[in-house]
Amino acid sequence: MRDIRVAVIGAGPAGIYASDILTSEYPQARVDVFDRLPAPYGLVRYGVAPDHPRIKEIIKALRRVLSRDEIRFIGNVHYGTDVKLSDLRRYYDAVIFATGARADRPLNIPGIDLPGSYGAADFVSWYDGHPDVPRNWPLEARDVAVLGAGNVALDIARMLAKPADEQLSTEIAGNVYHGLSLNQATDVHVFARRGPAQIKFSPMEFRELSHSPSIDVIVHPEGFEIDESSQRAINSTKSVKLVVDTMMRYMDREPAGAAHRIHIHLCQSPVAVLGADRVEGLRTERTELIGNGNVRGTGEFTDWPVQAVYRAVGYLSSHLADLPFDHHSGVVPHDAGRVLDMDGALVEGSYVTGWIKRGPVGLIGHTKSDAAETVTSLLADLPGIRPPEVVDPDAILEHLSGSGADYTTWEEWERLDAHEIALGAQQGRERIKVVSREDMISAGRG
Questions:
Q1: Is 4-101+318-406 in CATH node 3.40.50.720?
Q2: What pLDDT, in 10s, does the model give residues 422-432?
């Protein structure tokens, strides 16, 4: 077993799991984990709603991996700008790309680009304090539409409906609290194209939707269709049964007269965003199940008077420099994690894992098996992979400094982490996020 050095691009769960598995299965491996942000953890830090601290517990496990001696975190490095694939291949035996999916999947309906129409990824990044998005968010709409039937749609609806003061126990940044305190939304309408058995909410998150005393959850009976295919899904899948049971309890419950309402509309497909100069409404078409979990339109349309629309129809990975990309599927072509060029030939020493490999589907836990497959491929390929030209582990740091990259280290992240925790302690909170990139770097350097 020869010593090897591997670069991992992306310090979210996918990249960290790959680093963990690789160094556990091949003790002679040393891994540098790069991220474009000064902080690690990817979507766990910047994609999970702040009022879901249980999900963030995964950070404790990720931290244990990144703090190991054989793994080095290098932050604030933008792949494709600060470093290229050809650079990495000079310093590493192999490169694993785990850059995830940060963009919104488009929804091609008339009016979707009107002012007041937003993508989920941008809004999530705002309320999670991402350093690369604007500090302010327009929240003047009283009636809001959320398009989608997954957990992201659920998070957006909850964040729009829950009063800002109920978020003060979380890690939200000051600018986010201020923005939410000005929120005018009273009614948030979530539209799902299919029926109750096809909803992709996690049961726990769906149940927790009503835990705020300020929110009534109203499931409208129109579109509550359970055909034979739906019933089979309910009978065979526990999570589907729990979601449908929760939905039925919401339907049976009388609204308590709360100040904010989340409406769930089933079998309603968005066909147009209405308005001349900005969003003034949403038009949907009633759908019906066709026996296999899919739906068809009925020709029955409804116009909903909303002043903002959020589309949560899925994330999309971005094309990475020097790598092939399947723009239709939004992934890098691969064979068991091995990157393939557009002719199907292997790109030596290049691998993918996570959403850039399989698309933005599955929960965080699914990323482990995905990473294991990629690492198995890499280790099987080792005899045929040419060693790097430069073996000094600090040579990459000299290269980054020479190219003007202001990279950050694990020690700097630990100081930033402690700084955020100290800020939170002053207000009786677990932490308060530092938002701007400059302030993050400054806090990390003391």
A1: yes
A2: 999 999 998 99
